[in-house]
Amino acid sequence: MMDSIRTDRPILVNREKTTQTIAKFWDKISEGWRMIWGPHIHHGYYENNQPITPLKAQEKLIVKLAELVEITPNARVLDVGCGMGGSSIYLAKNYNALVTGITLSQKQVEIASRTAKENNIKNISFKIEDALFLESFDDNSFDIVWSLESCEQFFDKNMFIKQAYRVLKPGGKLMLATWCSSHNEYDGHLAKKYQKLCFAFDLPYMPTIECYCDLLKAENFTVNLSLDWSRFVKKSWDIGISLVNAYTFFRVLKVGGWRGVRFAKQIKLMQEAFAQNRIEYGVFLATKAA
What we know:
The protein is α/β, with parallel strands linked by helices. Helix content is 48%, strand content 20%. It has a single domain (4-287), classed as Vaccinia Virus protein VP39 (Rossmann fold).
């Protein structure tokens, strides 16, 4: 029986290897997963049991987050961990923001760039960049740093938050939506479940909502909002399982390879974690000093 695991530090010990693993993972499964999940690979926002398609629920999540940030036309937005560009394209198209999306995956850059071109969206660009360094970007260069369900895969959350603060203009805003643990430490079988979940989704670690607030404050951010949206998003995993189950084993293998098959089988781990309140969906809005 495992003793205990803290959730505020990596359980994957090699940062470079972890970064390469994550990049390869998205290179392999992004094209196939786009066929299954659509243009977005993040949660949807569900409320009041209203009938809504998964795509509309995902777009609703973007809108809800954008309303918190209060995005204005021509705002310079850095989408950190942009995936296949779904959120970046939505913000550029619907809010007329000037968006730069970054990811570790060359395949995702290709998909995102192609989709933006097909939709004739010119106020957007995509590139490979490590969120922990943001080496291509100058100090005080963005109005908004947007991170939607990417921070859970960052090896060092503090390094990212520090870089986000650096590249934001004075008074700029960080929007962070990420998977969080419900406890600072897990013992026994819960520690084993936490470890299994992290290994399954290539998550170095998942701090609590309170821990994220402390990290933000330590880097001189003012935390304007700290919310738990678990009840609004957890239905996404039920729908995700239904979408995957609609495909045969061989179809999943074809679109996602063996890593995709493994990922499909592991979706139930996250569904269970949300159902048992071991995982929470943290949403943060923080401001850099003016």
